Structure formats: C-alpha cells, structure tokens
Amino acid sequence: MNQIQEEIAKALVQLSEKSLITEAVAAKKIRENLKFDGKPKAGLCFQDIEAAIFYIEENNNLHYAVHLNSANDILIKQSEAAAGLDADSRKRRLQSEKSMSVLTNGDVKAALSGSASGSKPYKKRTDKKRLNVNKNYDDWE
C-alpha cells in the first residue's frame, strides 16, 4: 500500500462510527490529518479507496462496501463483507476521474515533508493589466 492508501485507511478507521461515509468527508478528514491546505475540493481515487477498504477488512475487521451515486460520488457504507463496484459503475467512475481533481500520493508526500505550501491564489482568467493613461502626462507641466 502506498501513502495515500494508508491515509485513506486511517481516515476510514477514524470515521468508523458512521454507517455512511462520503468521498468528500473522507477527503476532508485526510486533509485535516495531514494539515494540508491545498486542493480543497479534491476527491479520492477509486482504486486507492478500494485498496484501503480491503486492507481495513484484513487488519481491523471492519467491512465496507463501495457504492456510486448518480453524480459519480463514492459512498462508503458499513456492511457484512467488503464489496467493490460492479463493472459498469467502475467504468463510469474511472471515466469521470479523468476530469476530476484527486488527492494523489505526491500530495501526501509533499504534506508529510512539509513542502506543501497550499494552493496558488485564485487568479481570474480575464484579469488584465490596467493602463494608467495619466502617468504619461504627469511630467508634462
């Protein structure tokens, strides 16, 4: 297991008192544990969640099943046995991850090493430099 999968497993164990955990809640808990300010709306990679769930089942005897809602958000529910997604749901989620922002192993490494400075400040695409026409005439007197 890589570091992001370990962090997902740690967050799921911490949130084990809940019967339903959304992807956003788990990602928020991971950012909170790491004290990571960047990527505030980033989700989690499905394959990392699945690996973490099977790891938790082996080691902590907690069982989670993965479900997908209509907006392709991952829902993690406590169940009798660990279960992944069916083939169609898996394909749909993996397709949608291509356009999503997800927390990666590199983000976790950067946060743990202390080099994560957070996200860049928001800059509008339409910001333009303002031209001060009066500065050309200031010394005209």
Describe the protein's topology.
Blueprint lengths: L2 H12 L5 E3 H12 L8 E2 L1 H15 L3 E5 L5 E5 L8 H11 L4 E2 L1 H9 L28
Parallel strand pairs: 2-5
Antiparallel strand pairs: 1-4, 3-4
In summary, what is this structure?
By secondary structure, this protein is of the alpha+beta class. It has helices at about 5-15, 25-35, 45-60, 85-95, 105-115; strands spanning about 20, 45, 65-70, 75-80, 100-105. Helix 1 packs across helix 2.
Overview of this protein structure:
- There is one protein chain.
- The longest helix has 15 residues, at 46-60.
- Helices cover 42% and strands 12% of the residues.
- The strands form 2 sheets. A 3-stranded antiparallel β-sheet has the order 1-4-3. It has a two-stranded parallel ribbon with strand order 2-5.
- It is built from 5 helices and 5 strands.
- It starts with a helix and ends in a 28-residue tail after the last helix.
- It is elongated.
- α1 (3-14) packs across α2, α1 (3-14) packs across α3 (46-60) and α1 packs across α5.
- It has one domain (3-120).
- It is α+β, with helices and mostly antiparallel strands and 141 residues long.
